[in-house]
Amino acid sequence: MDSRSKHIRRALLLAITTIWILSQNARAQSADQAWLKYAPIHASSSIPSNVLPLGDSPLEQSAAQELKRGLAGLLSESPAHNSSVIAIGTVNEIRAAYPQIAIPDVPDPEGFVLTQARKNNRIDWVIAGGRDRGALYGAFALLRILSESQKLPGSAVRSTPAMPIRWVDEWDNADGSIERGYAGRSIFFEGGKVRDDLKPVEEYARLLASVGINGCNVNNVNNAAAFLEPQMLQNLARAAGAMRPWGVRLAISVDIASPQKIGGLATYDPLDPKVKAWWSAKIDEIYALIPDFAGFTVKADSEGQPGPASYGRTPADAANTLAAALAPHNGVVLYRAFVYNHHLDWTDPKADRARAAYDIFHPLDGKFLPNVIVQTKEGPIDFQVREPVSPLFGGLTETSQALELQITQEYTGQQRHLVYLAPMWKEVLDFDMRVGDRSTPIKSILAGTAFHQPIGGGLGPPRTGLRPWGGGMIGVAGVGRDAWLGSPLALANLYAFGRLAWDPNLTPEQIAEEWTRQSVSADEAVVQKVDAMLMRSWPAYENYTGPLGLQTLTDITGTHYGPGIEGSENNGWGQWHRADREGVGMDRTVATGTGYAGQYPPEVANIYENVATTPDDLLLFFHHVPYAYKLHDGKTVIQYLYDSHYEGAATAAQFVREWESLKGRIDPALYENMLPRLEYQAGHAIVWRDAVVQYFLKLSGIPDEHGRAGNYPNRLEAEDAKLTGYQVVDIKPWEDASRGKAISCTQGPQGGAQRSCSTEWVYNGAAGNYDIAIQYFDLQGGVAKFTLTVNGQSAGPEANWSADASLPNRHLHGDNSTRHIVPNVELKPGDAIRIEGIPDGPDSAALDYIELSPATNSPLNSH
Length: 863
Ligand code: GCW
What we know:
The protein is of the alpha/beta class. Helices cover 31% and strands 18% of the residues. Among the domains are: 40-159, Chitobiase, domain 2 (2-Layer Sandwich), CATH 3.30.379.10; 165-504, Glycosidases (TIM Barrel, Alpha-Beta Barrel); 715-854, Galactose-binding domain-like (Jelly Rolls). The protein has an eight-stranded parallel barrel with strand order 6-9-10-11-12-13-14-15. Strands 19, 22, 24, 25, 26 and 28 form a six-stranded antiparallel β-sheet that branches. A five-stranded mixed β-sheet has the order 1-2-4-3-5. The termini are far apart. The site of 4-O-methyl-beta-D-glucopyranuronic acid (GCW) has 10 residues, from loops. Residues 171, 179-180, 221-222, 299, 338, 382-383, 410 line the site of 4-O-methyl-beta-D-glucopyranuronic acid.
């Protein structure tokens, strides 16, 4: 090689390396990937572009830094030329700097006021926080207002959070995996330690602060003992440090058996003095490292975790031992009410997991120390697509309470399905429990105002006496290294969680609009379209999974993802729906059922006790009814099951077309990222629809009035085709495949692995152009390849595809049954439609069926 070409080579290498480094940086995980984008606005020239921090606390510094960064982005196309400033500080600092204006008191340290002030012939904007934390929230509020409405509001804005505890919980394990996380590995941990690179943690805290979240519990509630080891605590102090500038306090989950597991004691009995002393010393050790440590989350006596029951002690005994040691440091205990027996006798019609939380915790009301907050999932079971609100919220009037919601979509499509959860959460927050026959909506119970006078929020000193000090909301977030939640639209849920915890009176529509303007586009037409998709997504998911209070009809001992209708039956876990040949639903009435309905205050209990007054969407949660039972509009239960599944799947298909209509109007990267997700969802909605519909058709024997269920005239089954190498296999559960069967390319004639298999159908319908949907199984651990040909010719650019998604389950199942569409294929009678499948390792290139429908883009069909 001569020196010139060496030179060129070196230059090329340098260029490639630079591009690579730049692209790595571009991909570094940051809050900008979510809603803190600060895209340019058409701003009025009166917006001050100078920022004046009045205090020097770290939180005020963060606030000023964020304002500068936000304004630089927002005003980048319309720079302001004025000398006005945005002054930021605490109420006291603002009063000193602007003695001429009356700044109202802000008693809550987290609250703030935004207003204008005239000074030296300029009009300044001021952000006055109750304390520095309030100033930080005020700065984010101002930036949000600007990105949304492009101008500053005409009159002063005052805001205080509705409840003091606004936390996210992460179920991260020390090895870097995340329980029920769907966006890659942990941002906190790897290999048993806190990660060296905590930049993503800092960015996460910034994101959380922008919506007012003030705590983050970083580790899984299961298997938490190792997190109290001295080495780990030192590591955790670094994580706390990364979040501190954004006002997010670190909390951890603890294992009640820690004194024994890591402390070397012979017992973990919470009333044993040695155990109490161990916790006190451990807690002192934590506060020496993390002075603003927020507290503990506890899962005990639940799903195999140890707990006080081993010593005949109650949750209050355990919670109080921790709380007493935390109180001097101003820490709290979030004790989870998710305590139940998962070895229930499923043959006993009176057994009912839904009863557990109330049965166990209601008798303990008034026995918890003031810094204990009982943390209850929104429903009595487990984050299902719909449940009634947990009756425990009405059963603890002398105890602070927190509502636990799930941002990570465990039972609601695992971020592969678009499901905007704010409408569900809002129903919970607005639900009126009618304690004492008066208005006691859940949001007022969480705020601590339902049963007592308001006692003020914030992070003030612990209250004394057995009075609640106000509770809050906990969102199980499950963020990971894959752009926080994987799917860009799923971030609307994280955003909505924070906004609702701050102000539960916001509507899901308002929140969707705020989020979309900041995250997607401020173009009115785009905002409307995206918000309409978000708002229809939960109802759609409910429709094609488990409507009428059936809950998510998935395998509850497995992945919690695809259809598996009997997966919740005949086991001790108690998520039963009791479907049989005559009817469906679980009788939870006092009169004839498990008595669960009687756990609600009388007005609510009466509604649920009576089948006629139970809302349709919870009917099967409370009652076992015949399939021909008529809903409020006269439709039978079975027909509703059919119709809702077809409607839900049709809505998912519309999402694809609606998203396609945004092409060219939104960021191309976002467009390309979301489109395949929505296409996948539309296909998987069909898997769900067909499974549930087939199952209930077979069980009830009652046909679909519209003739759709079990009748697929345009489908060609794989098992009916001419097979070369492929073998017919049974799918479990049977309803997850068309007619219960599929074909799989596993074993060669001599028992060796197959290199490829093929299947061929002879087309005998009308001549025309068709979209061919291929239903195949995309298994983990290999990338199978497929090719579709017609009479030996490729069927177009989409005719080769790979099963390269990462879907749950290592077996052929509804979890991984996937649809691929080859559009606009010309067919005439006698044509040979052939698919060749090349398996790869465990991925056996399995196929269920193909389905033909008139081509949507065909020139023949556009007339
Ligand atoms: O929803 C269930 C999950 C478990 C989880 C448990 C809980 C952390 O399937 O993964 O464990 O609830 O909330 O404790």
